[in-house]
Specification:
The complex is a heterodimer of chains A (391) and B (282). With 391 residues, chain A is an all-alpha fold. Helices cover 70% and strands 2% of the residues of chain A. With 282 residues, chain B is α+β, with helices and mostly antiparallel strands. The chains are: A mainly alpha (391), B alpha+beta (282). Chains A and B meet through loops of A and strand 3, helix 5, helix 6 and strand 7 of B.
Chain lengths: 391, 282
Amino acid sequence: MEPLFHATPFTGYVYPNETVIPWSVLIVVYPYLTGLVAGAFTVSSLYHVFGMQQFKVVSKFSLLMALCLMVCVPLPLLLHLGHPERAFNAMITPHLTSAFAIFGFAAAFYVLLLMLENWFVFRPQLVQLGKTGWRPARWLFRLAALGSDDVSETAMRWDHKWIHALAVIGIPAAFGLHGYVGFVFGSLKSREWWSSDLMPPIFLFSAVISGTALVIVAYVMSCKLRKVAIDLGCIKGLAYTLWGFLILALLLEGIEFASLVYRSREGIEMIMQFVTGPLIIPFFVLQFGIGSLVPLLTLTYLVWRGVGGRALVVAVTTSAVLVLFAVLTMRYNVVIGGQEISKTGTGLLAYRPVLFGREGLVAAGSVLVVPFILLLISLRVVSPWTEEATA
Amino acid sequence: MNKNDDLPHPARRIFLRDVGLGAARVGATAGACALLASGGQSSGKQAPAAPASFPTEKYDWTKHRWAFGVDATRCIGCLRCVEACKRENGVAQDAHHFRTWVERYVYLEGEEKPRIDTQADPVNVEAAGSEARYRFANRYENAKVEKAFFVPKLCNHCTHPACVQVCPTGANYKTADGVVLIDQEYCIGCQYCVQACPYGARFFDPVKGVSEKCTWCYHRITRGLQPACVEVCPVGARVFGDRNDKDSVVSRFIRDNRVQVLKPETGNAPNVFYVGIDKEVR
């Protein structure tokens, strides 16, 4: 039987109740998923709002991906709750001074927005599907199209206006949602590692880079699977986006870390002991070195030399994979790291993730896989590549 | 063990009943249900405001302002308080869940920083022989001790509690008499409050799936009794009382001593007042 709780070993002095880490890997997955949503939506909006043509190829794909990811965002939270069946208490009687109280509303609004935008984008396909094929399926597609089967030029113009409007609303909503996730951590005065005004923008920019990286990897993979030529213009655009936001994200993280060290408030000795000890590999080597510096240098070289062709695709995709890994380690280092530094300021905990159980790595990993299963199923039904195929 | 602490917020209880959701909350602890049913009927048509009598008919929570005093110079580290608290409140008998604990600060000769431990330290647990028994091991027997003292810790029932601020449902609330309570039938178990408490006073009850912490034995103090830890302290290191009563033991404790609170910089404004601690106590 799974033990009721997992005690964490410690050094120095920690409060007795701190030996059970409250937020584990599921809460690492939660901001990671939200971040991927915000990033994927940003890519989609670069075309839908800013009209950047090079992103047209992936605009529908990233929008669909954002929806598949977003509907899974509540999963890690629900799994984590001691009483998931009471989750709606936060919406029935929201305690408005709590950052968490807003989550239900913000997430519901955003899911709705993504569903609407996706509906408008894929409505012509649903109408088409409602006219052909197996009868019960036809009915299902007609239901999904909400009986709206007008695909005339006027109707499409109207749809595009809606898509544009929803994308315009969606940008502040996506940024707000993810900035808010940063606030959940940054606003806590009890933990020096989290307590920072820069936490929301750090979360935001790392979100954008993770989402962009995911779009790159998924797009390249899908092209390989569909045996379609990769749009180099699109990859170049995505590489520029990743490069620009990566610089911002790293800069903010650097400033935050430098301020923490420079301010050297009470408990800094323990933080420095943490940073120069257990954090060397996960923070400096994995997150900063391999995950951030390598892609930054690679992308800088690509931008500087104007590399093209297969080399561009390989280098950008590799960088994107590294960035995806870096952001995941960043979430881990923030969420778990913050709890490894004791509130006493005189002790450190050494959290070791468990494999099985509700808070285990298998559960968290499964939560990460679910959105991609959803995406694969969605891709069986609708195609975000139609325009590319007809081109 | 009395199960009347960790009560639901009376205002929300009345509100939920009025909108017909009360039925869904039948699982209330027997005592709380009976008491609130009788108390609620008289105020059934009132707006959802806190009733005067809570949690018993005879108790008026607007008439009290509870506070706690700790005289660290008196504490001998016998840990009876810890044992009494665990028994009184049915806290898990392990070394990772405590509503109250005692810290030991030992300054050894030639060392600038104290060595700190509690009854939950593995060395002390081993000396006690079980996680359900509490004692401080004689681990500094052969060392030259320069200064040493004990500090009892518990929930500070802050005036501006960060735990209440971050609770997404309002399951955490502050009573009119100054006690911070958790409605364990309403708590969703997100543990945000556990994160927000700067004092490590909260923990997650893995059996109940909700947050837990010291209630100053609310079920006892509302019946004119002392918290269990205060009751069993053999040296009077823990004092408790009503600040509205100028002659109460806690009012005198605060008036007669130069008291301090833990981590004042957090702005939480604790209501546990300490005497005889030094700068290393956080």
